[in-house]
Amino acid sequence: MGQQTQGAAEALFAAWERWDLDTIATLVAEDAVDERPQSGERFIGRTNIMGMYQQVPGPPRITWRSVRGGPTVWVSEGVVEYGEGPVHIVGVVELQGAQVVAARYYFADAFDPPAERARWASA
Question: Taking the model in full, what pTM does it have?
Answer without folding.
Answer: 0.89
